[in-house]
């Protein structure tokens, strides 16, 4: 079963991101690649490098970033291949815990969505 895991947090946080978190994330990724659960993962550039395309009033509208009105944005993602939803949730818990270990005031979520197999 494949799941998309999206890390959502404040794009301009009031805390510094320590180098130790990047090191811990690299080790977490490496573990997943070695045991076969991590298919792909990437961090995302700030919203200033993106756009939102939407439909409103029957018309297509595009808005360039940054998205100041958004409280939390997706800052990175991973695709995991696991045996169960519970296993995907546990990987998400570990990821949140990694952030809290290095940034105790960190606030964010990991949204986990199963990828359709059709």
TrEMBL record:
InterPro entries listed in its UniProt record: Dimeric_a/b-barrel (IPR011008), YCII (IPR005545)
Start and end residues of each YCII-related domain: 1-95
Pfam families, A to Z: YCII (PF03795)
Family, per entry: Belongs to the YciI family.
Protein known as: YciI family protein
Naturally occurring in which organism (per UniProt): Agromyces aurantiacus
């Amino acid at each position: 079963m494949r799941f998309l895991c999206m890390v959502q947090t404040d794009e301009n946080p009031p805390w510094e991101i320590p180098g130790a978190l990047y090191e811990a994330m690299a080790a977490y990724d490496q573990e997943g690649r070695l045991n076969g659960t991590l298919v792909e993962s990437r961090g995302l550039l700030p919203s200033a490098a993106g756009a939102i395309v939407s439909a409103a009033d029957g018309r297509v509208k595009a808005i360039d970033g940054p998205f100041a009105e958004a409280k939390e944005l997706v800052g990175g993602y991973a695709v995991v291949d696991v045996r169960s939803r519970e296993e995907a949730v546990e990987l998400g818990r570990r990821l949140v815990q990694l952030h809290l270990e290095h940034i105790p005031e960190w606030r964010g979520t990991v949204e986990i969505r199963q990828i359709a197999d059709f």
